[in-house]
Amino acid sequence: MRKVAVSGTEGYAEQARSLLAPYENCRTEEVHADFLPHFPTLPSQIIDIGSGTGRDAAWFAGNGHKVLAVEPTAELRETAARLHPSQRIDWLDDSLPELAIVRKLKRNFDLVMMSAVWMHLNESARRLAMVHITSIMAPSAKLFITLRHGPVPEDRIMYNVSAEETINLASQNGLELLLNTHGNSIQPQNKARGVTWNRLAFQNRPDSAGQ
Question: Where along the chain do its domains lie?
């Protein structure tokens, strides 16, 4: 029996094969250029939530970090594991907003990555997810979020989530803003459609860790 899609992931299983090239052809250094100065240089514990094809997880692993790659869509997760085999990456079937399996691991992470994920959650899910995300962040850990704006592809579910709302929600959960940029998509097709992205970086206030 086919697993029912996690809310917000609709369309990704069916399109997993066609998404591989567009995602993998974009280099992490280019996609996340604004984030690079804020990424850790020393080996760190990283969780990539909604890791997709594994592009970013593989980049972090290649730079000496230990990565927990969380992806609820089996077609993406299994492809990513084959495409990016690494002893530094653990692949996990779990999802927002609960992160139930991740939280059972009782691990704290130095960096939380959520690229092209947050806008798939409705408002109540975003509020719950932020609580659970901050609960797994180490003192002074950083959270990176990208927010998509523009036409929604067919068979996908995306919500109009503003940077302002996300910043306020993060602040309510003990995070301080490090970076807020806005720019065009680097994928030619999305750029032609007028898709833009906010890139937000936050840092956990040490006295708020594990709230």
Answer: 12-17+42-206
